[in-house]
Amino acid sequence: MMPLLASFIVFLVYAISYAISSLSKAYLSMAFIGAIIFMVAFWLGLPRTLFADRGLLAFNIVTIGMFLVHMDSTIKLKTLLSDLKVIIISVMTCFGVAAAAILSAASLLTSISLWRPRLQRVNP
């Protein structure tokens, strides 16, 4: 597929998903609508190499950080500070889940290594 046509299709999907999101007053998010449109389009025969054909994969890797920062910057500081307790609980929960996963993995790996028979070297 030509890069210009691939870019046009991607931008068209973004425009349609933005319009639907605006009409629903963001009840349905733009990312959700875009994902649904792409999923249906790929099922109906849109080439799976659409994003690679655009030739902008390196650009996408660089700009994803900017999009994430932009999404966070839309939250007002006053709202963020009023929900500080929720944020602290969420962050601590993430750390707790990560610690539990690490400890579980370490315990599992240790128990596996205890059950595995050890090979002994025979000196000639």
What's this entry about, in short?
Helices cover 77% and strands 0% of the residues.
Protein architecture, described:
The chain has 6 helices and no strands. It is an all-alpha fold and 124 residues long. The protein folds into 2 domains: 1-74, no CATH class; 76-117. The termini are far apart.
Which short descriptors sum up this protein?
flat; 2 domains; 124 residues; 0% strand; mainly alpha
Which structural class should the secondary elements be placed in? Answer: mainly alpha
Helix coverage percent: over 70%
Radius of gyration: 24 Å
Report strand %: under 5%
Number of domains: 2
Secondary structure tally: strands = 0
- Basic shape: flat
Largest sheet, in brief, is: none
On the 0 to 100 scale, the average pLDDT is 82
Query: Please, how many helices?
Result: 6
N to C succession of SSEs: HHHHHH
Show unreliable segments: none
What is the terminal separation in angstroms?
Answer: 65 Å
SSE blueprint and pairings:
Blueprint: H1 3-23, H2 30-43, H3 50-54, H4 57-73, H5 77-82, H6 84-115
Helix pairs in contact: 1-2
